[in-house]
Specification:
Length: about 300
């Protein structure tokens, strides 16, 4: 039986919209443990990492070399502790399921998952998350985690952020539809594979997800799945801080997660950017629990 360890990371350092720090609680309240148990997995909830409130910290406390990025010291501290928790979970033979918080938690998830193994990553997201402290228009680190993990530009050599055993050629975006100009150029110039919503429209979710898993899993020990709820259309996932129209449907999302489970390559996973303050009757958190369960094997029949 698959063992899943839940690790909550109630951060909102990475973005301006307060409330995403309550995401782990909202997802648990929506029945995550029950949904995972229905998928036939053994569930252990490790609780939340202690995270100081953003309101108690100074987002502008940084040096000139840190560019425009906010809360970098706080993000470093959380990332270090999360990387240790993820690595320990994998070493114990379980699969870590990280609950954000904002998407900056992916820095720690990826570093921990790739500590002792070569990993790929499938990035289900509307956004590229490939900005740097000097290119980011907002300074919000939730738009930078993939660039940080891959050591892109000024993230190169930042030990607490880089995941050295994650390589660009094993990173695949699925469902992109909102990129900054600098991100667009950087992604085009990289060895990553990027499938936009137009690709899903043209090829279908089946073909795109199959291709994504194949590329991410080629020659590695396992695959990290990063699921940002703004990947879905805001009509069905309203409780996110950066909604973008034209996302995937309910069934497309479930199929993608079902295919992740069937591929048997899942090494670690995170579910991020659920903001109950912006949600309607906790429906985005409920959707997050359903999709996580699908990724761990829950089926209709």
């Amino acid at each position: 039986m698959t063992a899943v360890h839940i690790i909550g990371v109630p951060t909102d350092y990475g973005q301006d919209r307060r409330g995403v720090d309550m995401g782990p609680s909202a997802i648990r309240y929506a029945g995550l443990a029950r949904e995972l148990a229905a998928a036939g997995v053994e569930v252990e909830d490790a609780g939340d990492l202690p995270v100081p409130r953003a309101e108690e910290r100074d987002p502008d406390y940084r040096t000139p070399s840190e560019g425009n990025a906010k809360f970098l010291r706080e993000t470093e501290d959380v990332s270090d502790r999360l990387a240790d928790a993820v690595a320990d979970t994998v070493a114990d033979g379980a699969t870590p399921l990280v609950l954000g918080g904002d998407h900056s938690v992916a820095i720690g998830s990826l570093r921990g998952s790739a500590r002792d193994a070569d990993v790929g990553a499938v990035w289900f997201d509307a956004h590229g998350d490939y900005n740097t402290p000097t290119t980011s228009p907002s300074g919000n680190v939730h738009g930078m985690p993939l660039a940080a993990a891959l050591g892109h530009a000024e993230w190169a050599g930042v030990e607490w952020a880089n995941a050295p055993r994650l390589r660009e050629e094993n990173v695949v975006y699925v469902g992109l539809r909102a990129l900054d100009d600098t991100e667009r150029a950087a992604i085009r110039g990289s060895e990553m594979t990027a499938y936009t919503m137009s690709d899903i429209d043209e090829r279908g979710i089946t073909d795109v997800v199959e291709a994504a898993i194949t590329v991410a899993g080629d020659g590695v020990d396992g695959v990290h799945v990063s699921l940002d709820l703004d990947w879905l259309d805001p009509g069905i996932a309203p409780g996110v801080g950066t909604p973008v129209r034209g996302g995937v449907t309910y069934r497309e999302a479930h199929y993608a997660m079902e295919r992740v489970a069937e591929s048997d390559v899942l090494r670690s996973m995170e579910v991020v950017e659920v903001n109950p303050v912006l949600d309607e009757h906790n429906e985005t958190a409920e959707l997050a629990t359903e999709l996580a369960a699908s990724a761990f094997g829950k089926r209709i029949l």
